Every structure is written in structure tokens, then in C-alpha cells.
Amino acid sequence: MIHQLVYYSRNVVAGNDRSMLMNLRDIVSASQRNNSRDGITGFLIFDKTWFIQVLEGDQAQVSSTYTRIARDPRHTSATILDARNVQGRSFPNWTMGGAMRTPEVEEIYLQHGIGSFIDPTRLTSGKVVALALDLQAFDAAKRQTQRLAS
Ligand SMILES: Cc1cc2nc3c(=O)[nH]c(=O)nc-3n(C[C@H](O)[C@H](O)[C@H](O)COP(=O)(O)O)c2cc1C
Predict the structure, then answer these.
(1) Average per-residue pLDDT in the chain?
(2) What is the per-residue DSSP string for 44-76?
(3) Is there an atom of ligand 1 within 6 Å of 20 CB?
(4) pTM over 0.90
(5) Domains in the chain: ranges and CATH
(6) Ligand 1 centroid vs 27 CA: distance in angstroms?
């Protein structure tokens, strides 16, 4: 049985897109190292105001990872949207994928009914997972194109 936890938090990392991306790179590299050790997969969505993350794996590992993340000073007010057992992983191949909200992916947010400002109280874990899967697919298609072009 796979446990899946979805939470959101306030991004308190100030700065421009570039420094936000640098910060994300740090978070994602630590996450990939720890999550591959702990059997955790998932996806991290963020903009200037919010982080929204899906964590999935063994329940005890998901809980301890979430507890560690929630204490991280790069965000505040981590709020669990949902924590439940699911049939299988939604992100089996991602020890932690990350997607910053950029103009390039605006259309994907709109398709999911999310306007310019995310209202996290209106999110559900199902909506978050569906959005994250589309962002992941966009990212994979982009990488594929870059490979073909190089
Ligand atoms: C929004 C956000 C998401 C994070 N996600 C993860 C994660 O999925 N896995 C993880 O190990 N650390 C994650 N971190 C980082 C942890 O808070 C912590 O810095 C890290 O696990 C410490 O790893 P270390 O002891 O190996 O340096 C996240 C941090 C933030 C701010």
C-alpha cells in the first residue's frame, strides 16, 4: 500500500525568478538524494507565493519526510490537504520533480481552472495530482524536443 500526502505552504524565499530557480535546484537535489534513499517519489509545484507538494511512499517514510520538510525555514504554514492510502504511485519515476510556474505553463494552470493567483483552500489532492501530471508531461515533452534538437 502506498501512502500519498499532499500539502501546501507559503513560499518565503524572496527574490526574482532566477534566485527562485536556484533555490529550487537546492531543494530538488537534497530531495532526490534523500527520497531515493527513503523510497519517496512525488512532485513539487511552486510560484512566488506557494509551494504545493505530493509525497508518496511508505507511510512512516512519508510522515518523517513531511515532518522534516515542514520545519524548513524556506516556507511557513505547511498545511496538509490530504493524506491517504492509494493503489499505486502517481509519480513512480520521480524522486522529486519540480515545476516553477512560468508563462510557458500558464495554459496548463488555466486548463485546470487555476487563475493567476492560486487559492490553496480550493485545491484538492485529486486536482493537485492531475495538474502535476500535466506539468510533468509538459516537462518531459520539452526535454524530448531539446534532445532531438541537440
Ligand atoms: C517546499 C520544500 C519541499 C521539500 N521537499 C523535500 C523532499 O521531498 N525531500 C527531502 O528530503 N527534503 C525536502 N525538502 C528539504 C528539507 O526541508 C531539508 O532541507 C532536507 O531534507 C535536508 O536534507 P539533508 O539533511 O540531507 O541536507 C524540501 C524543502 C522545501 C522548502
Answers:
(1) 92
(2) EEE-SSEEEEEEEE-HHHHHHHHHHHHT-TTEE
(3) no
(4) yes
(5) 2-149 (3.30.70.100)
(6) 6
